[in-house]
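Exercise 3.2. Students should predict the tertiary structure of the chain below and write it as structure tokens, then compare their answer with the key that follows.

Predict this chain's 3D structure.
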Amino acid sequence: MDLKRIGLLSPPKWFSYCDDELVKVGPENIRVMNAQIRMPRDFRYDLDEITQAPDELLAAAQSLADSDTDFVAQIGTPFAMVHGWDGANDLERKIEGKIGKPFEMMGLSLPRVCREMGIGSVSVCTVFFTEDWTNAYRKFLENTGLKVLFIGSFSELDILDQVTMLELCQGHDICTKQTMINTVARCCERAPDAEAVLLAGLPCPQLDMLDELEAQAGKPVISYPALYSRILKRLSLSAKPGFGSMFN
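Answer key:
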């Protein structure tokens, strides 16, 4: 068996479920390991703090690349968003060149999958993003060429009360499948002409619910498993069936 070894970089102070999901959606010949981006202990997900992360991203990515991996990927949309579309692409290329392995940032994966699927307009839920984060993400998406017909957080959609990103990282039961079904429905109500619903962030595991979310929406739902889709595509691997249109 030709094994493909994939290294995932997790954001700070967050217990990752992405390793298990990638193994679940991928073929039998993949193996996944995880490393965490190391930031100061008082890191609280401030945008200015995240802007200072590239050196640590490179160091963590290099450690995974040196561990006999075939691909390295970074989890967490804000680590791309803070640099803007062009700046994040430049950062991704820089890291890939230095580590000598294919490298993908989650924040770039979602717009790329939209582009691959021919999606031109989206209705966006920014989960627990605050107003400054949501405004930054609108600008980020619009710079990719996507038309953002609606964008708002859980609280703006009257789904859940606002919490901090750090509280989300440490509150594993805040968000449920029903939360996401309701979110998708309200995104569709706010922008019925949008060609897809886009869910930012990692509020809860979503891989197993993608088919149900798309059935609710009646259109594609693009969220963080776009990263898995991109990894598999770049490694010329096929996904298992039953995980939504991003993997078709």
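Discussion points: Strands lie at 4-10, 30-36, 71-74, 103-105, 121-125, 147-152, 196-199, 221-222. The domain at 110-222 is CATH 3.40.50.12500 (Rossmann fold).
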